[in-house]
Amino acid sequence: HPDSAARTVVFCGGPSVGGAGAIVDSDAGSTVRSHKELEAGSARATAAAEHYDALGRAAAARGHGVDVVAASLEEVGLYEMKALLGRTGGAALQGESFQDSHLLDSLRRLYARAPDGSVGMGFGAQFELTAGRDCEAIEHIGGGGGAAGEPEGLSVRECGGARSFAWEGGSLSPHTCVGLTLTPAKKGGGASVMPQHQLLQLSARYSTAGGRRVRRVTTLRLPRLTQSYDAKSLLPALDQQAVAALLVRQAVAKANSGASAPEMLRWIDRLLIKTMKTLCAYSKGDPGSVALPPAAGIVPGFVFHLRRSPVLRTSGASPDRTTFFRLLASTLDTFSSLLLVQPTLRGFRVGSGGSAPLPLEPTSVTPDRLLLLDS
After folding, report:
1. Is the Cβ–Cβ distance between 164 and 153 less than 8 Å?
2. Nearest to 79 by CA among 145, 110, 35
3. Sequence-separated (6 or more) residues with CB below 8 Å from residue 21
4. SS3 breakdown of the chain: % helix, strand, coil, rounded to 5?
5. At a CB cut-off of 8 Å and minimum separation 6, what does 134 contact?
6. Pairwise CA distance, residues 128 & 164, whole Å
7. What is the H or E stretch that residue 219 is in?
8. How high is the pLDDT of residue 188?
9. What is the Cα–Cα distance from 5 to 66, expressed in whole angstroms?
10. Which residue positions in the chain have pLDDT lower than 70?
């Protein structure tokens, strides 16, 4: 039923041991793949990933979503299924057993009902981004269908002075958050007069579980910068939290493209150095003179926690566990992405009402203060 809303839920109590999606033999003595084996190249894992990727393409073409609920102390193959979830807009939930309270709560939230009584999800989503003709291409970095890189079923067309990018979004949930990066076109030899403002319009169309068709449109009008603009002039309009969330998604996209953990750490370090060099005021040769503008004050601390988060670190974690965190990081909204990487710490003073946010530092520990870590 290509035009009908559907959502498939896969309940996994252990690894697949047969068929094209098998990740391990049925022999009890067989071991499940590790990060080291995957980096060296595993033919079985590659074949299983291709199988699930084909299933994801078929489901996405029909506007269907696929969720995976894993309740097992063993690996279930979430690493191989990541393209299936990404292409269909599905969710991954993990627990030690199907009776875990947090797993049951997550299922209730995922399948919560809308005010009209139907499941609060969207199906058969279609996205369209309209920009100027100087926008050469877009890159998908999580949310809204498609694996890392090019969105699912991307089509490009031009009309007048605009270029439109349309792609399939799979299924949607109330927390769906789409990440995109735009690539400007290379400058040609001839001079052309460009408008002073850039218009961007993002359109999302989807069907509800009750059969209603919904269309949402967001339009932005942004000033066009000259070639000689000063990066510091953008600080008043900088959204630090959005920058941090996009940084997480870019790191996940690099990891999914095959970059190792050391390569990603070096990339983040170079990016941080370049950002600090561009935005900070300092005297050359005097490290103590570095002054970071308040408008970018949370970025260094966030990068510090990102380097140590399970989104990047693979030591001590299984491939499924790493994939679970990376799927979360590439689909959650801005606030939830920040909370996943950098937990919030709040302090309650004895004898006083209310609480206050505190930095994740040893100085926050005092005898008269109660601390609550929200992770």
Report:
1. no
2. 35
3. 48, 51, 52, 77, 80, 81
4. 35, 30, 40
5. 184, 185, 194
6. 7
7. strand 213-223
8. 59
9. 12
10. 1-3, 144-152, 187-195, 227, 375
